[in-house]
Design a protein that fits this description.
heterodimer; A: 66 residues; alpha+beta; Alpha-Beta Plaits; 4 strands; globular; B: 563 residues; Flavocytochrome C3, Chain A, domain 1; Methane Monooxygenase Hydroxylase, Chain G, domain 1; 7-stranded mixed β-sheet; 4-stranded antiparallel β-sheet; 35% helix; binds flavin-adenine dinucleotide; binds iron/sulfur cluster
């Protein structure tokens, strides 16, 4: 899992979904959802744009394990 | 399911820019300043699209400080040495040197300082440079600031529109098509001139962890316009080269020049420094030689390889970690998650995935341009990583702007928009949306994986006539599955087209590599059947062009260098 969204903190501003360069984040029922986690580039743009600190990163077992 | 493509929009502009990344935004600004009516089309959103989405930290420049390596002439001598056979010196002077000072001023006007917080310019040396050409700066918000500059000029932008094809009228550029990857609308765009700035081709080779999006360069750049331009008769050059770098094990992130610029040491599994065995500049050698050295050490059984930063001072280490996070936002926490101490560690590295891109920082790989950034097709220009002569931040900002000026000048001489055929557009509409219509079929990721296995087996990176011929036959045979690609939604539709474009570019790359019967910038072009560099016969460009429906024609163009 790459970018991870904390539903408790997301206020649905849509910025991350609007800007993600890989079209990975989409809005669903007013909430940002990391819809294609395997396609995340880990660029961190979404986290920088989120004014609510709702986005963190979790590195996959492959990234940490090899 | 909604019927996608039922809304068709026709949009007109003087100058259209395809790809609103680093280069494209500077192109658009230039063309607008020349008075042209400009339209930018990007498959993502220009606020954060492309290579520098999450930040950037080095700007290469000579600054005329009085040091002998710090002049235009010394810099050009370095280009001629390090990018010999790939960089066209005349074009380099026009797209970089003539535009360099205004480019730096433009970045600062956008609100991004090239200086350290104390007001000083900090420069480091790596990548074969004769002196510290790399200005370290905080470019974390450079892309949003560029997008803001575009907005201030009221330039029109179509975000989330993937451009699918280009059209000519009697040999001249007429327009292009695309579709909105979020709502499925179809676009027909007429323009007097177009600048292609869509970056290089990624996801073309296997990646270190098997995930094709865990890449050094932006995985959204998939050669879509290399393919479309090639099909329209545009010549490409420098595409035989396969670019790679040295990245942290597990995460294909940049940082390499920061590590070595700050004095990190490249060591093998025995803890021994080895780069001097491969290049007199050791750890400050050109990038291809660093990759070559790493590959040889691992091959000889002396892996894994590491960057040792234990000897750096606390101040340097702090600076290093902060720059690593400027270039790749998530890299510092990755290194922490891996258990490396910020007080200094031996960080395990590996060679990254190969990609279609420039063999040196000092040239490009893609659409062949002349001194006015024009291709061989009237009305089609190129800028940035998508062109055969530009790459890196400095050239994308400087040369992107040059391309915009020339495209606007050209557009001003065109008194009417060239028509494009409705039959061709109707066919394209059908082709674009076809994967959505299929009830069953192959997923784009599966198709792409097959491409990656073929490329990696046969030219990722070592290659020979036999392996390249075999790759071409297999890539050609894959064509039969194109009509079976299936998308369940618009996002997957974009991935289907990307998969096909990656396959097409892979074929072109293999053909170009077959033509160059020598090795150059090893391992970026390493022919095991022609392992030596042969300047007598091959100091220049392999130019590729479409030949008939399926063929690829190649020719060689010698590049002159002062002795
Ligand atoms: C993480 C990272 C760090 C780097 N650090 C440095 C550095 O410190 N110094 C340096 O000099 N260089 C650095 N580079 C290289 C430099 O950033 C690039 O050479 C440069 O930004 C490329 O600019 P570009 O405009 O050619 O491509 P990009 O900025 O990638 O733009 C290409 C654009 O085309 C769009 N696009 C692609 N296909 C289509 C399509 N079909 N339709 C519409 N739009 C499309 C993409 O969405 C994207 O916006 C770095 C690169 C990366 C990836
Ligand atoms: S940017 Fe933050 S607050 Fe806004 S939608 Fe995304 S996660 Fe939610
Ligand atoms: S890190 Fe980048 S690619 Fe991943 S979800 Fe965030 S913006 Fe998208």
């Amino acid at each position: 899992m790459p970018a991870v969204i904390d539903k408790g903190k997301c206020n649905g501003c849509e910025l991350c979904a609007l800007y993600c360069p890989l079209d990975v984040i989409h809005m669903e029922e007013g909430m940002a959802v990391v819809k294609y986690p395997d396609e995340c580039w880990h660029c961190g743009a979404c986290r920088q744009d989120c004014a609510h600190g709702a986005i963190t990163f979790q590195f996959s077992p492959a990234m940490l394990g090899v | 399911m909604a019927i996608f493509g039922s809304d068709v929009h026709r949009v007109k502009a003087d100058v259209a820019v395809i790809g609103g990344g680093t280069a494209g935004l500077n192109t658009a600004i230039a063309a607008a300043e020349m008075g042209a009516d400009v339209l930018i089309v990007d498959k993502a959103h220009i606020q954060r699209s492309g290579a520098i989405a999450g930040g950037i930290d080095h700007f290469f420049a000579y600054l005329n400080t009085g040091e002998k390596w710090d002049t235009r002439d010394a810099y050009l001598a370095y280009v001629a040495k390090v990018a010999r056979g790939a960089a066209n010196m005349k074009i380099h002077e026009k797209v970089l040197c003539d535009e360099l000072v205004p480019a730096m001023e433009r970045i600062e006007r956008m609100g991004v300082s090239l200086r350290q917080p104390d007001g000083k310019i900090m420069r480091t040396q790596a990548l074969g440079q004769p002196g510290p050409y790399a200005i370290n700066f905080d470019g974390k918000f450079l892309k949003p600031k560029m997008a803001m500059a575009v907005k201030k000029k009221h330039i029109r932008v179509l975000n989330r529109v993937q451009v699918s094809n280009l059209y000519l009228h009697e040999g001249e550029f007429a327009g292009f098509s695309g579709y909105d990857v979020r709502n499925g609308d179809f676009y027909e765009i007429e323009a007097k001139a177009v600048v292609i700035a869509t970056g290089n081709t990624n996801r073309m080779f296997k990646s270190q962890t098997g995930n094709p999006f865990n890449l050094w360069y932006c995985p959204a750049n998939t050669g879509d316009l290399h393919r479309a331009a090639f099909d329209a008769g545009v010549e490409l050059a420098n595409v035989e080269y396969i670019r790679m770098t040295v990245v942290p094990k597990g995460f294909s992130a940049p940082g390499f020049n920061a590590f070595f610029g700050m004095g990190g040491k490249f060591v093998n599994g025995l803890g021994m420094e080895f780069m001097k065995n491969y290049h007199p500049m050791g750890d400050k050698a050109p990038r291809n030689m660093m990759v070559w050295g790493a590959l040889q050490e691992v091959r000889a059984g002396r892996g894994p390889i590491y960057i040792d930063v234990r000897h750096l001072s606390p101040k340097d280490l702090a600076h290093l970690f902060s720059t690593l996070g400027t270039d790749k936002d998530t890299l510092p926490e990755f290194l922490t998650a891996k258990g490396y101490s910020r007080e200094g560690a031996m960080i395990e590295m590996t060679v990254s995935e190969p990609m279609q891109a420039r063999p040196s920082e000092l040239c490009g790989s893609g659409i062949k341009i002349d001194e006015t950034c024009a291709s061989n097709v009237p009305g089609i220009f190129a800028a940035g990583d998508a062109s055969d002569q530009m790459g890196c931040l400095n050239m994308c900002v400087a040369g992107g702007y040059a391309a915009g000026k020339h495209a606007a000048r050209y557009a001003a001489t065109v008194n009417y928009n060239r028509p494009f055929k409705s039959k061709a557009l109707a066919d394209e509409h059908k082709r674009v949306f076809a994967p959505l219509m299929r009830k069953t079929g192959i997923a784009p990721g599966e198709f792409e994986n097959i491409v990656r296995i073929i490329t990696t087996d046969n030219f990722g990176p070592y290659k020979s006539e036999i392996s390249l011929t075999s790759a071409i036959a297999k890539l050609d045979a894959l064509d039969r599955y194109r009509d079976e690609l299936k998308a369940n939604n618009l996002h997957e539709l974009m991935r289907c087209h990307e998969a096909m474009n990656i396959q097409s570019v892979a074929k072109i790359v293999a053909h170009a590599a077959l033509a160059r019967k020598e090795s150059r910038f090893p391992p970026y072009h390493y022919r095991s059947d022609h392992p030596e560099t042969n300047d007598n016969d091959w100091c220049g460009l392999v130019v590729v062009r479409r030949d008939g429906a399926k063929g690829v024609a190649t020719r060689f163009e010698r590049l002159p260098y002062a002795a």
